[in-house]
Specification:
The chain is α/β, with parallel strands linked by helices. The protein contains 12 helices and 22 strands.
Length: about 475
C-alpha cells in the first residue's frame, strides 16, 4: 500500500469502550528462526505469527485508545502488531510531539528529563517506549517499520542518515524482546537499495538479537532484492489488494501462495510471510471506491492459502483499523467508512484465531506443504492447498468443492477424518478408514466462494481429536 494521504490528528478522541490496563509489562521470549529455517520459535516453542496492521497507531491513538486497541487484538488471538515509526518527515505523536528535528531522520527529537507518566509532557520516543512496554504487557510483539518508503524516495532518508537513525533505534530498543524490525516500508527493494542496506546493516550490527525483514511494495517480495542480505532473517511479501482481473496476465495476482512456494525454494532457507494481503473492507484495487470491497471470506482465503503453502504465519488487515480512522476527524483513505473501534470487530478479525489454533494443535516444526496429496486440483478459487506432518495432513478448499486425496502419505494403517470450519473453528467428524489408495471428500454445503473447509486427517492411533 502506498503512503496514506492524510495528516496526523492532535485532538484526543474518546474510545467506545475503555479497556482495563493490562498488568505491568513482562519480558516476552526473544524470537528466533527455527532449526529447519522455515518457521519462528520463542523459547524453543513454535511461534505462529498472527499479525494485525495497525500502521498509524503511534500518530492517531492516545494512550487510552492504544490500550483499548492492544487489549482487543490480544483477546482476538493476535500476537504481532505492525506499526510504522516514521510515516513522514513531519511525523508526530497523537499529542503533537515531533519525531524528528527539521524532518531529518539523522536528528530524532529527544527531550531528556520529561516524565513519561504525565500525558502531554513526553516526546514522541517516550510514547513509543511506552507503547512497546504496553504491547508486552498484552503479550504482543511490535513489528516496527523504522521509515516508510516515501522518506527514502524524497532523499530525507539516505545511506548517511540511515546509519545515524539506525544506531539510534538499535541503541534505544535493543533490550526490548518484543520487537521485530520491518526495514523498507511499502517500497520497491530495487529502488534506494543502498539506503535500505545501510539501515538494515546498521541496526543488525548494533542489535543482533531482533529479527528483521523488509516490507515491500504491492505484488513484490523482499527476497527479490535482499534474500541473501545478512540482516534479513525472514522474507516478507505484499500480495496486495488487486483482483485477478485487475492484474496483468500471468501475474501472481490473488494467488499469494505462489510467493510462498517461490521463497521456500530459495537458498539459504528462510521463513516467509504475507505481510500485507487484501484488507477486509477495502476496495478491490484500493483507489476506486466504487469497486466491491474485500470481505471476510477473502481475508480468510489469503491467510489459509499462504500458511498451507508453508508460510510461518499471516498478517491480517482492516481498512479503517490500519489507518485508525475517525469520521469527521480524518480524511478517509481508500473509502474508509467505519470508525476504527467498530471495525475492530470486522468478521475476519475474529476468525483469524482459528487458523493459529489449528496450526499449533499438531506437531509444528515438521509441517511441510505437499500439493501431491491433491489429485484433481483446480485453478484460482478452486485451488486446494495441502500441508502435512509425519502423522497428519490438512487440505484447505476455499469454495468447498469436492476433491480427491492421495492417501498413505502420513503414518498409520487407518486415519481419522474431520472437517474443520475456518469461520467458526468447529469440527464435523467424517469417520475412520484405511490409509491407502485415494478417496474423494465432499465438504459440507453447496460449493461457492467462501464456503471454505479444511479436511483433517490424523493417524487414528495418535488419540488426537479433531
Amino acid at each position: 500500500m502506498r503512503k496514506l494521504g492524510f495528516a496526523a490528528a492532535l485532538l484526543a478522541m474518546p474510545v467506545a469502550t475503555a479497556a482495563a490496563p493490562a498488568p505491568a509489562p513482562e519480558t516476552l521470549p526473544w524470537l528466533s528462526v527455527s532449526a529447519e529455517g522455515r518457521y519462528l520459535r520463542a523459547d524453543g516453542k513454535p511461534f505462529f505469527w498472527l499479525g494485525d496492521t495497525g500502521w498509524l497507531m503511534l500518530s492517531r491513538l492516545n494512550r487510552e485508545e492504544t490500550e483499548h486497541y492492544l487489549a482487543k487484538r490480544a483477546a482476538q488471538g493476535f500476537n504481532v502488531i505492525q506499526v510504522m515509526v516514521l510515516h513522514s518527515p513531519e511525523m508526530t505523536s497523537r499529542y503533537g510531539a515531533p519525531a524528528l528535528d527539521g524532518g531529518d531522520p539523522a536528528h530524532p527529537h529527544v527531550t531528556p528529563g520529561r516524565d513519561p507518566a504525565r500525558p502531554g509532557e513526553y516526546d514522541f520516543w517516550d510514547h513509543l517506549d511506552w507503547a512497546v512496554d504496553r504491547a508486552a504487557a498484552h503479550g504482543l510483539y511490535l513489528a516496527l517499520v523504522p521509515s516508510w518508503g516515501s522518506l527514502a524516495s524524497s532523499g530525507k532518508l539516505n545511506p548517511a542518515s540511515a546509519e545515524v537513525y539506525g544506531r539510534f533505534l538499535a541503541e534505544r530498543y535493543g533490550d526490548k524482546s518484543n520487537i521485530v524490525w520491518l526495514n523498507g516500508g511499502d517500497t520497491l527493494g530495487n529502488e534506494n537499495t543502498e539506503t535500505w542496506q545501510a539501515l538494515g546493516r546498521t541496526i543488525k550490527a548494533a542489535d543482533p538479537r531482533h529479527l528483521m525483514t523488509f516490507h515491500p511494495f504491492g505484488r513484490t517480495d523482499s527476497s527479490w532484492t535482499f534474500h541473501r542480505a545478512p540482516w534479513l532473517d525472514f522474507n516478507m511479501f505484499q500480495s496486495g489488494h488487486r483482483t485477478y482481473d485487475q492484474e496483468d496476465p500471468g501475474a501472481r495476482s490473488e494467488d499469494n501462495w505462489r510467493f510462498v512456494t517461490e521463497d521456500l525454494a530459495l537458498s539459504p532457507p528462510k521463513p516467509t510471510i504475507d505481510g500485507e494481503p487484501s484488507y477486509e473492507n477495502i476496495p478491490h484495487g484500493l483507489h476506486d471506491t466504487t469497486q466491491p470491497r474485500w470481505g471476510a471470506a477473502d481475508a480468510r482465503r489469503y491467510a489459509w492459502w499462504a500458511v498451507f503453502a508453508g508460510a510461518m504465519g499471516h498478517s491480517y488487515g482492516e481498512n479503517s483499523v490500519m489507518q485508525m480512522y475517525v469520521p469527521g476527524r480524518d480524511k478517509p483513505a481508500y473509502g474508509a467508512e467505519l470508525r476504527w473501534e467498530e471495525a475492530l470487530d470486522a468478521p475476519a478479525a475474529g476468525q483469524m484465531r482459528h487458523l493459529k489454533r489449528l496450526m499449533l494443535s499438531r506437531p509444528y516444526f515438521e509441517r511441510v506443504p505437499d500439493q501431491s496429496l491433491i489429485l484433481d486440483n483446480g485453478v484460482r478459487y478452486d485451488r486446494v492447498l495441502a500441508t502435512r506432518g509425519r502423522d497428519y495432513m490438512m487440505a484447505y478448499s476455499y469454495t468447498g468443492r469436492p476433491f480427491r486425496v492421495r492417501l498413505g502419505a502420513i503414518e498409520g494403517r487407518r486415519v481419522r477424518a474431520a472437517w474443520y470450519s475456518p469461520r467458526t473453528g468447529e469440527t464435523q467428524a467424517i469417520g475412520n478408514f484405511d490409509n491407502r489408495g485415494e478417496r474423494r471428500f465432499v465438504p459440507p454445503g453447496t460449493p461457492a466462494p467462501g464456503n471454505d473447509w479444511v479436511l483433517l486427517l490424523d493417524d487414528s492411533t495418535t488419540g488426537r481429536t479433531p
